[in-house]
Design brief:
Helices cover 67% and strands 6% of the residues. It is built from 18 helices and 6 strands. Strand 5 and strand 6 form a beta hairpin. The two termini are 25 Å apart.
Length: 448
């Protein structure tokens, strides 16, 4: 047992002291927070800038259908033009006009197309605004020609809002947001795939490096090959858990720093104050009541409502279990592959089945999240080689506990079996040099 502890300690401390580990541990949370925050800041800044900007638009309407549509307001100043379009384009550079709208004349129908020329790239919000104005006017003209009153048509338009609920086994109803569950399912599936593959492949490379340098011959003279394999798997797994925990803590810490120091710049001051006063000892419902008091923050209240429906304890505990069990399963296979071959090029034939097993849930991620209780999602979450990734995609939607128990039991049983088989391959393979290994050869090693 002490030898196993020594191997685990050697694998763990030799990796956590590396500059690459320290750099990635601190750099990744910064990048994650930046990915979340920077687009939001840019969007808010852009929206504020657009709200303050006044655009000058020259309108050359040869059709005459839209002459009354474009009225100067606080954001757009319209200048109506009469010359030929080619002349107006030439004059544009020396005039105050930023965008030139050209509506060509049509023979019989209302023109439904137009051209916009700009001194710079024409922003989407300008195109969207003009397109909406023209569409509304074209619809009005068509309705008038058909004898349909616009006010009557507007009065019958109705926006339908559908709220979805889940009835639990106890008969209680719980609001559900499939959009949030889909995003969480995507994120959890991709994350666990990355962690298992990244740290599992480290086991394989570590074994190959020791084998190539012949250090393994010295080590196995003191410890059993199975102890060496398990020590390497557990040590690198602990490195992965350490990095994951540090990423979570540092990401939340950085986000907290942003929340307390910079959030005031991007949300209305009164709302921020009220929310911050309520947060330390209030539940999400109380916070929702505060933000619902202002119309402009109705979306914020909906976000809080969505977050309150997420079962974070089940997701986090399941993530830890499937990461550990899934990692142990694949790491033992990676260790066996690393021990069987002499160089990375020879790993391809053995890596292919493992990679396919891991990539199947990623390829079917759309089917799994769109029908999380369907037969594809169910059976992939039961098969041990695909269950860690598939089940993490399903859990945000709510999975019956009996399915979780069966999936976890099968995964643990498969891990014990593959570790036993991998140990037999590893025991023979780490001392085998210069021989081309085939599947038949591996089967012989297992039967020894």
């Amino acid at each position: 047992m002490s030898k196993l502890s020594l191997i685990i300690g050697r694998e763990y401390f030799s990796r956590v002291k590396k500059k690459s580990f320290i750099l990635m541990t601190f750099l990744t949370p910064i990048l994650m927070v930046a990915v979340i925050i920077i687009p939001s800041i840019i969007a808010v800044r852009s929206e504020q800038k657009n709200a303050e900007k006044v655009s000058v638009v020259g309108v050359l309407d040869e059709s005459g259908f839209y002459k009354d549509v474009f009225e100067t307001n606080e954001k757009y100043i319209y200048i109506f033009l009469n010359d030929d379009i080619e002349i107006e384009k030439k004059n544009m550079s020396s005039s105050e006009i930023e965008y030139l709208l050209y509506i060509p004349k049509t023979e019989f129908n209302i023109p439904t197309g137009a051209y916009i020329y700009g001194k710079d790239n024409v922003p989407n919000y300008v195109k969207t605004y003009i397109r909406n104005l023209m569409a509304q006017e074209a619809e009005r003209i068509k309705l008038e020609a058909s004898g349909i009153d616009q006010e009557l048509l507007d009065s019958v338009k109705t926006n339908i809002k559908i709220s979805s609920y889940v009835i639990t086994d106890d008969g209680d109803e719980q609001k559900s947001y499939s959009e949030v569950s889909t995003i969480l399912g995507f994120a959890c599936g991709i994350l666990i795939y990355m962690f298992i593959f990244m740290f599992g492949s480290q086991v394989m490379r570590g074994v190959m490096e020791e084998k190539a340098s012949r250090i393994v011959e010295v080590i196995v003279s003191s410890v059993k090959p199975f102890q060496l394999m398990m020590g390497k798997i557990i040590g690198i797994g602990l490195v992965g858990l350490t990095q994951f925990v540090l990423w979570v803590v540092l990401t939340f810490a950085l986000y907290g720093v942003f929340d307390t120091t910079l959030m005031n710049k991007y949300l209305p001051a009164d709302t921020v104050t009220q929310v911050q006063q309520m947060l330390p000892d209030a539940d999400s419902t109380a916070v929702i009541d505060v933000v619902e008091s202002t119309d402009m923050n109705s979306k914020v209240s909906e976000i809080f409502d969505m977050i309150s429906t997420i079962n974070f304890p089940v997701i986090l505990l399941s993530f830890l279990f499937y990461f550990i069990a899934g990692y142990l399963l694949f790491a033992s296979i990676f260790a066996a592959i690393g021990g069987a071959v002499d160089n990375e090029a020879d790993t391809q034939q053995f890596m292919m089945p493992v990679t396919i097993a891991m990539i199947i849930p990623i390829v079917l991620i759309g089917d799994i999240t769109s029908d999380p209780n369907g037969p594809v999602a169910f059976w992939l979450s039961m098969i041990p080689f695909t269950s860690p990734i598939t089940m993490m995609m399903r859990i945000p939607f709510g999975v019956p506990y009996w399915q979780l128990i069966i999936s976890m039991t099968l995964l643990v049983a498969c891990f014990i079996l593959t570790t036993w088989l991998a140990g037999k391959i590893y025991r023979t393979g780490i001392l085998m040099y210069g021989k081309k290994i085939t599947w038949r050869e591996l089967w012989k090693w297992i039967r020894y």
